[in-house]
Amino acid sequence: MIEIAGGIVLAILFLALLPAILAGAYLVFVAGVVLMGIIAAASVLWVGAQSPEGLAVELILGGIFLLWLHYEIKARRQIAAEEAAKEFRPPDLGG
To answer: Helices marked H in 1-95 — which ranges?
Structure first.
């Protein structure tokens, strides 16, 4: 009888803590993916830096990425400003 009650209590505790367990599993998964990305980027950088030609290619690609990032951020800011301007209503001065 005690074993059955203990099993029921355990099942209820497991179900009550399931959201926290899933959130923890998701956090571990995301941390693993980020860590794999960092390791992959470091290995690509290391392989490319073994020769002057590889380093030149990496620097060129890095420059292209930074240019793209600059214009992407600029475009997003402009879109956000346009949306804010659409939502803005000047105050009614009662005139």
So the answer is: 2-48, 52-87
Residues 6+ away with beta carbon under 8 Å from 48: 54, 55, 57, 58
Q: Count the alpha carbons within 13 Å of 82 in the hemisphere toward its beta carbon.
A: 6
Residues 68-91: pLDDT tens digits?
A: 999 999 999 999 888 888 877 777
Cα-atom radius of gyration of the chain, to the nearest Å? 27
Question: Where do we find the tokens 């998701």?
Answer: 26
What does the pLDDT read at residue 1? 62
The confidence score (pLDDT) of residue 9 equals 84
